[in-house]
Amino acid sequence: MLGSKGKKKATESGTGYMLYEDLAYLPNAEDRQRLDVHLPDGEAPEGGWPLMLYAHPGGFIMGNKSDARGRWNFAIRAIDHGFALISTNYRLLGREPENIELEIEDIQAAMRWAVNNADALGINTSKIAYAGISAGGALVSAAAARANAQGEPPAFAVVSFISPYVVTKVAQHLDKDDPPFYMVSGKMDTVVRHKQAEDFAAALDDASVPYVLVVVGDESNPVDHIEVLDAYKALGKMDDPFIWLKGLLAEK
Fold this sequence. Notes:
Blueprint: E1 7-10, E2 16-24, E3 34-40, E4 49-55, H1 77-80, E5 84-88, H2 97-116, H3 118-121, E6 123-133, H4 135-150, E7 157-161, E8 181-186, H5 194-206, E9 211-216, H6 226-234, H7 241-251
């Protein structure tokens, strides 16, 4: 399934991994319906690697799965914490409601592909987390919230940064069996208003879904950039989302 086209890579911290690019996650896939797999070096733990399935930002109209490997992005650090990483593209169709639905379907299709190929990838299907920034975070949140009702593979957690939850209508699909959410919101963000995170947190409360809401920034800093996140962590203003994920895994 992965073939022999893997590339040897390493994170900034020096953790080695194999990169397999542009794998189609649907039969007759369109150009955008492809994903990249990042498998850590070494032997997988018993039961397989935990997996982070990541969706890129871009306002639903731009962006690319390769963003996950950018030095400003938090997703590639999943490998440093013992996760395999899948970074997925999705069709860039715009913000009309019918198009947003198709983008969510692409995220769900990427998750199904990961689950169906778990043995070949060496991943643990009970330890898959969704993650995304901005539009990507809104899409993975919607996919996670719809999983139970639609019979889709479930995630054990969702991590989302500065996400426009209202666009994907995720709050309408919540129920008490949804996974916990870790959300980061910029208090003074002028693009994705903090109120969206507050309103979504209220919806999670109403549905009895556990969550962590981290509010950072007394100024309009780009809180999705890893240097800014590191600065906030150093100041004690936020925890590392990977520590939160690993805490959840320890409970499984």
